[in-house]
Amino acid sequence: MVLQALAFYLFAAVTIASGAMVVVSRNPVYSVLFLILAFFNAAGLFVLIGAEFVAMILVIVYVGAVAVLFLFVVMMLDINLAKIREGFREFLPVGTAIAIVLIVEMLWAVGVIGTRSPTVEAFNKAGPHVATIDNTRAIGQLLYTQYFYLFQVAGAVLLVAMIGAIVLTLRSRPGVRRQKVGEQLYRSKADAISVVKVPSRGGV
User: Fold this and answer.
1) What is the pLDDT of residue 86?
2) H, E, C per residue of the chain
3) Which CATH number do you get for residue 3?
4) Would you tell me how many other CB atoms lie within 10 Å of the CB of residue 93?
5) Which of 58, 57, 80, 68 is nearest to 32 (CA)?
6) Are the C-beta atoms of residues 105 and 117 closer than 8 Å to each other?
């Protein structure tokens, strides 16, 4: 129990420190590296509460894909650091206000302030029953029963966002030959091949 508490405080402290360094770091590459460190420690926190599936998803998806993509983009772009720092003091009050609102919302969600969250109340009531179900099965039951329609809406939003990103980045450049899939699929045999009669010992 003491070891678990020490591990919790260690992971939590490193996560908070890494999150702060993501914001205050002067080099964007260092910010992405601190973000990866924050993801790993957050995964450790999920393991401590018994959510191994969420921890593995966090490491595989966010560290293995999203953070690496961020790092690749940051290293490929020529970022003007002096220009980025120009608006720091100007937007500091707005950023502080947003951070305070997010902290208050999270504290209210877990029941630290105000009334307890209905989700937390339901979890406390179903505590013994939930403990007997593994993480993957519990997440699947929630996603495909109680939150099925919201899950489908989230998928539709991601699909629309993907189509929008493709449309915005699709550009026609003069002089560049593009593949015409429709013409390739519906071309006739006469357009695709030509039969040539070759005389014996004559070649083409």
Assistant:
1) 67
2) CHHHHHHHHHHHHHHHHHHHHHHHCCCHHHHHHHHHHHHHHHHHHHHHCCCHHHHHHHHHHHHHHHHHHHHHHHHHCCCCHHHHHCCHHHHHHHHHHHHHHHHHHHHHHCCCCCCCCHHHHHHHHCHHHHHCCCHHHHHHHHHHHHCHHHHHHHHHHHHHHHHHHHHHHCCCCCCCCCCCHHHHHCCCHHHHCCCCCCCCCCCC
3) 1.20.120.1200
4) 9
5) 68
6) no
For residue 124, the one-letter residue type is N
Q: What confidence category does residue 81 fall into, taking pLDDT thresholds of 50, 70 and 90?
A: low
Q: What is the pTM of this model?
A: 0.59
Comparing 114 with 61, the larger pLDDT belongs to 61
Q: How many domains does the chain have?
A: 1
Domain extent, residue 13, equals 1-79
Ramachandran class of 90: left when φ > 0, alpha when ψ lies in -120 to 50, beta otherwise: alpha
74 Cβ neighbours under 8 A, 6+ residues apart: 28, 29, 31, 32
Cβ atoms of residues 14 and 20 within 8 Å: no
Residue 34, token pair as written in the block: 């601190």
